[in-house]
Design a protein that fits this description.
single chain; 488 residues; alpha/beta; Endonuclease, Chain A; 3 domains; 16-stranded mixed beta sheet; two-stranded parallel ribbon; 20 helices; 20% strand; globular
Amino acid sequence: MGEFLRHPETIAALLLAAHVFLVAAAAVLVSVNRRPSSAIAWILAIIFIPLLGAITFFFVGYAKLPKSRKDKQREVNALVLSRTAGSPVVSSGHDWPEWLHSAVALNNNLGALPMVQGNSAELLPDYNGAFDAMIADVDMAREYVHVEFYILVLDPTTLPFFQALARAAARGVAVRVLSDDLAGLMFPGRKETSSYLQDIGAEYHPMLPLRPFRGQWQRPDLRNHRKIVVIDGRVGFTGSQNLIDASYNKKSNLKRGLQWHELMMRAEGPVVRELDAVFATDWYSETDVLLSLDSSAAVAGQGPAVIDAQVLPSGPSFDNDNNLKLYATLIHKAERRISITSPYFVPEESILMAIVTAAARGLSVELFVSEVGDQSMVYHAQRSYYEALLRAGVRIYLYRAPKVLHSKHFTIDEEVAVIGSSNMDIRSFTLNMEVSVLVHGRTFVDAVREIEDGYRANSRELQLTDWTRRPVSQKALDNLARLTASLQ
């Protein structure tokens, strides 16, 4: 060994050979079924930080979900398709824009849920007002309450909701609750929250738990980001809001005075059963218990305020990035106007190209994002896209601090909107389980437009000349952060 150590050039040659072998092996393994931009980012990470890059790829760069979970998704998809085949509530689309038919067919093929008619919907832009609406409906529950949130925390703000669940359970209502396992670790009150649910008789399960010794293990950065509440199959809620105080109970947020601004939707009609089918899928994945899917013949409503709605669950349990395909399709199909609200805007290449192309086609395109960010790397990564968008003619509005604009929705022309849990970023397209609702209805889109008008009034429009003059240090940080966004 001593003789070997006296030849540093030999050691250097062996280390170089090992490095070359590692990079060559990584180039083959990383590139399998992966976007070129993502593969290149991983290979660069392994070249420049070999040990750390390889370890990171081992934990978060491999296949997404266990086969058993994907099999459960396919099983529920088949049941949903058989349940809705020939249903009278499936919309015929006689009053849709011609281009919408292909988008709905795409969604049906990718997410197994049809566009259903006869729904009513109310937008809930007030944070605590959304909780009040949920509480009022939970207090009317007679059979079951299904609750699913990415973040679910018992705190002074959410306590009234938990108390409503307790009252429901005391009446004999089945209360089933899901929340993301890893997200729960990032906030205080995890034990108090689960203990409260257990004490009131609710059945609670964490989603995507990381328990390798129990055989529950998957890529750890895959998360269930959905927000769904369903009461008796009669009323449903979905949107961007988590079950937590508007400050997210973080000291840094409280110090800065940050408050999250959200948008939820309260719906009645056949679409509620489709939201409940998404909850049933997640419940089945976590408990091996398949809840019965409502197949009753709901009666479609009438009147100008009635909307068509199509639920699109997405994420790694599906075989492709179905929400990405929906978003790109709608942006390409737009004929006059596109308004996008996304707190974490780190677009995949096809989305960025669709937006830039829409602006080049002469459409009015606007993007609402926050002036401040709560996640530094994402915040800087999204800033790296602003110049290309501004040069293309996209108008960017920065929602003023201390509010953090966390709503997730966009509108196409005058009749089509999408609202849900999905950001317009690479993580939401590829790694997170999300739920989106595609809506056709002039009155609904008008209501969303009013909310967008409020955003605009409370925002500062970003100007290209000002943006290009920002300090070089900020430009460098933005561009470096952009590179990390491709590590998926």
